[in-house]
Each structure stands twice: as C-alpha cells, then as structure tokens.
C-alpha cells in the first residue's frame, strides 16, 4: 500500500492544472480585487518578487533576481470583503482599497508552502496535517536553458517565477486521488466517522440566526484559513444554513455593507441566488444612513467605473460549489421566509468513504455533521479525513516491519 503511494509524485496530481496567476506583495487591495474580477480564478497568489515590465538591458539581471521568487500567500474576494467590513474601512472604502495587499495575508501560520514536483503524495499529506492549506508545485517547462529563455521573453506575465510556472496542489486533489485508490484503504473507509475521531465537535464555527452578521467576521476569517464555512443555527441548535466564503467570492464588494448592517439570517438571504431582495437592499441603505456611513452608501449606489458594484451575488457559481439547491424555510420567530443554499450534511454514523464522495461531489472541503433532527453535531474536513489515511499507511508499514524483524 505505502509503496504505491510513496511512488506517486505530486506532479502526477497536477496534470492539466492552470498556472498560478499572481501579483507582487507591493500591489494594493484594489489591484487584487480588479485582477480577481477580470479572471476566472477564485484566488490570486502573491509573491515576494515584482512582476513589472523590464527593458531589454534589465532582463538578464531581472531573471537572476526572480530566481528567489516565493509565494507568500493567496487572497480571494472574501478576504477583501472581510477587510472592507472593518469600521474604519467601511467609513472610506476607496482609501481602504489603496492599502497594500500584505494587510490581507495572515501574519501567523504557515498556510502556503512550496514543494518540489518530485515530492511524494505522502509528503504533501504530512504538510496538510501540519496545518498547511495550499501547496505550490512547479510545472516543468523543458530544460533549464529553455526555461531561462522563455522567462526572458515573458517577464511581464504574471505566471512565471524562477524560470518556471507553478500551480496549486489542493486538499481536494489529494482526497480525490485517495478515493480513486480506496481499495487500498477499504478497512478504514467503511467505518462510520464517529468511530474515527475526526469530527470536530468543540470548535464549530457557528452563529445564531438573529446574531449580527458582523459577529461572524472573526469566524469567517478563520474559515478562510481552514477552508470551511460559518454555520447558521436556530435557538434549538439546528442547522439552518451557512455563510460560505465560496459564495462571498462571487459577490461584489458592496456586500461588506450588508455584513455590517444585517443579521446573520438576513445576510444568508442577501447573498443567496442571483442577488438580494429589494427590501433587504433598502434596509441596508437605511441602516448605513443611520450610522452616517456615507462612503459605504455611495459604494452601493455606484454602478460605474472600476469599483462598480451591482448589489448582487451571481448564481452561476452555485453548481460549481455544490450550493445550488434551495429551500424556503421559516426560521424561529422571524416573519421572513428565507430562501437559502442547502448546507451539505452527513450524520455521525455515515461512513468515511460516503462523506468523502459527498464533499468531492459538491466541491467543498468539509461536511457538516448533524443529528437525525438536524441538530448541529460538528464538522468534518478533508484534513481530518487525510489523517485517517495517513495513520493507515503508518500502521501498514509498522505491521510489515514487525513481520520482517527477527523474533
């Protein structure tokens, strides 16, 4: 078992992946927002080198300088929305967008790590279990000299670093491979998840339906790091829905005003399915006026220029991220019926392989665990799933070693 996995190089899991689009850490938050809006990428990577235009005279020196390029972080629209939600930034979003993008990159934690293309899948799994969320893998392009020549002709392009292009190796890539090799792990894969000690029941990111949406901001920041979402629960602890960073990635920046003024349940309706209801848009505007947040109000009403917003969250991403099913549900004592994305759930007695397939089918890195009456029990993530496979590999190796040792 371990031999086949150890022989699998991470480059094999990156075949066909697009090269990372990137910006320098000297770019601004506004630069990142513009780049994300113009591309189909969910994330933009940031590197400690400059990707400007060079003259012919400078190209040789520039190539040498870029040999030390390192990816230092990644940013998505949800990161920018969370940044704009801060009171001082909501007061003047235009100035906030001029801040250096480095303000969005966590100061603690090692969430992005480089790994050589010939590294094993097991090495990559170990990094994930250490807390790394994304791994950067080089994409080979011919020999060293041809790469240097190619880079000299493409210095202004944002996908080249160190005479190479790079791609993300994600947790989803690794879990998908493990599912395709599930016969090697059949004894562990069929076990219920509540017998495997992988359900997080202590540190669940959740807020109440009637809580201010702004109370979810610290949890959203953590969820962006851990690639999960914030659960919305009712007074009985039942799961109603979620506030998903994936959904926020397809919203315009004016949703920051909604987060600052609405309840968690109202925000769930605001960001759901093709745009917020007109009454919620008006409610946000009224509350912005009450708080004298004139610049934030202008952000909502401005529908032209580079910073334009359309007060909508496109629904085209729903199928991609598995949040396309909707229901109408009355929640608690609220008079509003909330149309929402159905949070993906499993039960404590669900098998590991069933939960893995469920997450992969919906393109998410986690599944909520609920009781039969939909009471929120916990959350299980790809990292937790990989822990079981890694332990199975270790147990298998230990068993082989014991068989070979002299008695």
Automatic annotation (TrEMBL):
Segments spanning the bilayer are none
One GO cellular component term of this record is: nucleus
Q: What is this protein called?
A: CBS domain-containing protein
What's the superkingdom here? Eukaryota
Keywords for this entry? CBS domain, Repeat
């Amino acid at each position: 078992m371990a031999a086949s996995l150890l022989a699998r190089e991470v480059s094999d899991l990156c075949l066909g992946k697009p090269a990372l689009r990137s910006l320098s850490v000297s770019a601004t938050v506004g630069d990142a927002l513009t780049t994300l809006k113009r591309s189909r990428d969910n994330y933009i990577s940031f590197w400690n080198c400059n990707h400007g235009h060079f003259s012919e005279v400078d190209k040789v020196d520039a190539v040498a300088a870029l040999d030390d390029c390192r990816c230092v972080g990644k940013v998505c629209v949800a990161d920018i929305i969370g940044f704009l939600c801060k009171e001082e930034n909501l007061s003047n979003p235009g100035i906030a967008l001029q801040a250096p993008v480095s303000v969005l990159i966590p100061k603690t934690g090692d969430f992005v790590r480089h790994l050589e293309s010939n590294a094993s899948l097991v090495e990559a799994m170990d990094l994930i279990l250490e807390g790394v969320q994304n791994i950067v893998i080089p994409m080979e392009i011919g020999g060293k000299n041809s790469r240097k020549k190619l880079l000299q002709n493409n210095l202004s392009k944002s996908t080249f670093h160190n005479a190479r292009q790079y791609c993300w190796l994600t947790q989803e890539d690794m879990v998908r491979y493990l599912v395709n090799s599930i016969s090697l792990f059949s004894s562990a894969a069929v076990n219920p998840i509540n017998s495997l000690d992988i359900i997080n029941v202590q540190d669940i990111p959740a807020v109440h339906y009637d809580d201010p949406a702004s109370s979810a901001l610290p949890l959203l920041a953590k969820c962006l790091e851990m690639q999960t979402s914030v659960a919305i629960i009712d007074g009985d602890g039942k799961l109603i829905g979620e506030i998903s960073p994936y959904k926020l990635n397809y919203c315009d920046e004016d949703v920051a005003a909604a987060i600052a003024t609405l309840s968690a349940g109202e925000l769930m309706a605001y960001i759901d399915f093709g745009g917020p209801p007109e009454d919620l848009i008006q409610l946000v505007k009224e509350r912005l006026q009450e708080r004298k947040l004139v610049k934030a109000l202008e952000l909502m009403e401005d529908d032209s220029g580079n910073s334009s917003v359309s007060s909508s969250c496109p629904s085209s991403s729903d199928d991609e991220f598995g949040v396309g099913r909707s229901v109408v549900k009355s929640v608690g004592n609220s008079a509003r019926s909330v149309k929402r994305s159905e949070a993906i759930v499993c039960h404590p007695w669900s098998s590991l392989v069933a939960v893995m397939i469920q997450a992969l089918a919906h393109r998410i890195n986690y599944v909520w665990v609920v009781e039969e009456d939909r009471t929120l029990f916990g959350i299980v993530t790809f990292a937790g799933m990989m822990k079981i496979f890694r332990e199975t590999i270790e147990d298998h190796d230990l068993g082989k070693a014991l068989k070979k040792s002299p008695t």
